[in-house]
């Protein structure tokens, strides 16, 4: 088991750029886990990695690509059954 | 970029105490030339088309606006506390976006490297977690609970202290710092940066202070602040891109950059994009 | 030939950083404690500060703004605001190819940097900036008499004027400026070097005076 975090973004997130942008940031910060779109206003991601880098992910995503507006980010603890080794878009 | 939001804010165009009747001068605001003349009591700002613009004298400066529906000028309550020393620190012209000048003013992690021996020093480089919020009622950005080791926090400081900071952004081109006042620990010193957006890639910073310091000569206070701003200028004129990116794709913000990111998010949400890069860099 | 002469080896001491322009890229060039050369995109990945304003410490180039340290391979080694964090390998400066030969530093932004093979032994004279493009610099240099006669271009590329020889490498800066790096044949006397230096300044006046 590996401890990590779930980040949930809400806002005007419908732009197609949103998911690839988050995926790129996750790779840049060498985080593992996944990101997926829940609906036009919600994107959720599960992250494993050092705490300062998960924070950096949260901070970068709060600004996001130019064509989205993030209203809220909530964070919850998450336990991965198996340690993820890549960051994937679901 | 958009000038639309920017035209309805107030901007400093002169140090009020230095207005000399009969010695008007030209300056630029949001890319347009302006003529500033008159006196301290009765300053006059004229647009290129001859239109006389609204004027007010506040916080030691002459303020004007070019828009048809200006928002009220923000309030700094400490400006009315008569036991403070008010110090306008002159003008520093910087070849950078006006928004970058504000962002840099909000940054503490650079103190040990850019203001070495004054506002910071190695090995005291760690930035402890602090809080940043957009206060919806006032429509302002606030960063609070900031603490930092400073060798000489102010001209009046005699030894290194753990300085406490709060930052406030009441308008896109203004930032106000409330910091520990070395001779009067129960009060805050106030240091503001009023930025005149000359163009999207050029600005004039007008630092202004409201201090409890009745010891340091006035000239020393000005020089102390000027030195800090000149150190910042060497950074601001060498950041790429010149405009402030609202998409951080080309940057790697970490927790210590939280104020910068919330400031940009606030600008983006408001559409206050004069001086900002709105496409991916 | 995509490599560009960015400076004279002599002018970049150990632990020094300089700025260069190569094929339109803004580049930070630095020399480590052991004499090794490094050419990076001149932009800190953290907040976009020019790395050419940075400082060399512990075998790293550190950014002036927030002190982020980057190893010789470009990877981020240390973030002062987060001293406990071991930065991931994915955070990195962008590295370009660099080499030096015969007293000149060469950088390529697109492939492996190569220095031309030089005939003979050369010593650095000076670097000189011209407010005109490289073609005009070359034209002026070939058409400015030295000691009463026009210099001749040898087969291997250098110029000879009487008993002296000069090697000129031109690097364009934008569209309207050139940085020329000048070398003289090894053993040229001090008087000879001074005369060549003055002659280059005369050539510069003529290059900059010509029609745009």
Parts with pLDDT < 50 across at least 5 consecutive residues of chain B: none
**Which architecture name of chain B does CATH use?**
Alpha-Beta Complex
Order of helices and strands of chain A: EHEEHEE
The total beta strand count of chain B reads: 16
CATH architecture of chain A, by name, is 2-Layer Sandwich
The secondary-structure class of chain A comes to: alpha+beta
Quaternary assembly: heterotrimer
CATH topology of chain B: Naphthalene 1,2-dioxygenase Alpha Subunit, Chain A, domain 1
| Rg estimate of chain A, integer Å | 12 Å
Task: Give the tally of structural domains of chain B.
Answer: 1
Largest pleated sheet of chain A: 5 strands, mixed
Number of strands of chain A: 5
Tags for this model:
heterotrimer, A: 90 residues, alpha+beta, Alpha-Beta Plaits, five-stranded mixed sheet, 2 helices, 27% helix, B: 281 residues, Naphthalene 1,2-dioxygenase Alpha Subunit, Chain A, domain 1, three-stranded antiparallel sheet, 5 helices
Topology:
The complex is a heterotrimer of chains A (90), B (281) and C (212).
Chain A (H helix, E strand, L loop, with lengths): L1 E11 L5 H11 L3 E8 L2 E7 L2 H13 L5 E12 L6 E3 L1
Parallel strand pairs in A: 2-5
Antiparallel strand pairs in A: 1-3, 1-4, 2-3
Chain B lengths: L3 H4 L3 E5 L9 E5 L2 E7 L4 E5 L7 E4 L2 E4 L20 E4 L3 E3 L3 H8 L5 H4 L16 E5 L4 E11 L10 E11 L2 E7 L7 E12 L2 E10 L6 H19 L7 E2 L12 H13 L5 E2 L4
Parallel strand pairs in B: 15-16
Antiparallel strand pairs in B: 1-6, 2-3, 3-4, 5-6, 7-14, 8-14, 9-10, 10-11, 11-12, 12-13, 13-14
Chain C lengths: L3 E5 L8 E6 L2 E7 L5 E5 L13 E3 L2 E3 L6 E2 L5 E3 L16 E7 L2 E5 L13 E9 L3 H9 L9 E2 L5 E3 L2 E10 L3 E9 L4 H20 L3
Antiparallel strand pairs in C: 1-10, 2-3, 3-4, 4-9, 5-6, 6-7, 7-8, 9-10, 11-15, 12-13, 13-14, 14-15
Helix pairs in contact in C: 1-2
């Amino acid at each position: 088991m590996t401890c990590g975090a779930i980040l949930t973004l809400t806002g005007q997130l419908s732009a197609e750029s949103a998911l690839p942008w988050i995926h790129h940031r996750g790779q840049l910060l060498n985080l593992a886990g996944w990101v997926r779109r829940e609906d036009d206003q919600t994107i959720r991601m599960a992250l494993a990695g050092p705490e300062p880098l998960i924070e950096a992910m949260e901070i970068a995503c709060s600004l996001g690509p130019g064509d989205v507006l993030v209203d809220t980010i909530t964070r919850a603890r998450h336990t991965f059954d198996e340690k993820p080794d890549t960051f994937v878009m679901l | 970029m958009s000038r639309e939001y920017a035209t309805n804010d107030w901007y400093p165009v002169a140090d009020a105490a230095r207005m000399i009747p009969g010695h008007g001068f030209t300056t630029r605001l949001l890319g347009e030339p302006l003529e500033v003349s008159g006196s301290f009591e009765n300053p006059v700002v004229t647009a290129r088309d001859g239109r006389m613009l609204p004027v007010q004298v506040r916080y030691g400066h002459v303020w004007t606006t070019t828009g048809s529906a200006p928002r009220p000028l923000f309030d700094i309550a400490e400006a009315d506390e008569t036991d403070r020393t008010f110090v306008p620190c002159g003008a520093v012209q910087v070849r950078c976006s006006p928004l970058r000048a504000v962002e840099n003013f909000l940054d503490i992690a650079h103190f040990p490297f850019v203001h070495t021996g004054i506002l910071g020093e190695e090995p005291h480089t760690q930035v402890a977690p602090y809080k940043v919020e957009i206060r919806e009622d006032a429509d302002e950005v606030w960063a609070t609970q900031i603490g930092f080791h400073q060798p000489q926090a102010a001209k009046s400081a005699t030894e290194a202290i753990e300085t406490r900071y709060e930052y406030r952004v009441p308008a896109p081109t203004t930032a106000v710092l409330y910091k520990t006042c070395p001779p009067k620990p129960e009060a805050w010193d106030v240091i503001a940066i009023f930025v005149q957006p000359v163009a999207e890639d050029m600005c004039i910073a007008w630092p202004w202070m409201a201090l409890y310091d009745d010891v340091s000569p006035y000239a020393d206070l000005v020089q102390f602040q000027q030195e800090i701003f000149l150190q910042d200028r060497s950074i601001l004129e060498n950041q790429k891109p010149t405009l402030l990116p609202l998409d951080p794709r080309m940057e790697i913000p970490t927790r210590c950059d939280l104020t910068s990111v919330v400031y940009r998010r606030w600008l983006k949400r408001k559409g206050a994009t004069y001086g900002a890069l709105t496409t991916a860099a | 030939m995509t490599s560009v002469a960015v400076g004279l080896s002599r002018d970049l001491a150990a632990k020094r950083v300089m700025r260069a322009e190569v094929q339109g890229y803004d580049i930070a060039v630095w020399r480590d404690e052991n004499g090794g050369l490094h050419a990076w995109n001149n932009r800190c990945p953290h907040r976009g500060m020019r790395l050419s304003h940075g400082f060399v410490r512990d075998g790293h180039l550190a950014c002036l703004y927030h002190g982020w340290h980057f190893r010789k391979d470009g990877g981020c080694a240390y973030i002062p605001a987060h001293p406990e964090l071991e930065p991931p390998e994915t955070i990195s400066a962008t590295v370009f190819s660099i080499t030096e030969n015969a007293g000149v530093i060469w950088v390529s932004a697109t492939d492996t940097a190569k220095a031309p093979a030089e005939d003979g032994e050369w010593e650095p004279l000076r670097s000189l900036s011209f407010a005109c493009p490289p073609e005009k610099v070359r034209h002026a240099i070939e058409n400015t008499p030295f000691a009463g006669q026009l210099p001749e271009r040898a087969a291997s590329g250098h110029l000879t004027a009487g008993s002296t020889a000069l090697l000129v490498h031109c690097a364009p800066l934008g569209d309207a400026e050139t940085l020329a790096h000048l070398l003289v044949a090894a053993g040229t006397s001090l008087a000879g070097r001074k005369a060549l230096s003055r002659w280059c300044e005369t050539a510069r006046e003529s290059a900059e005076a010509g029609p745009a």
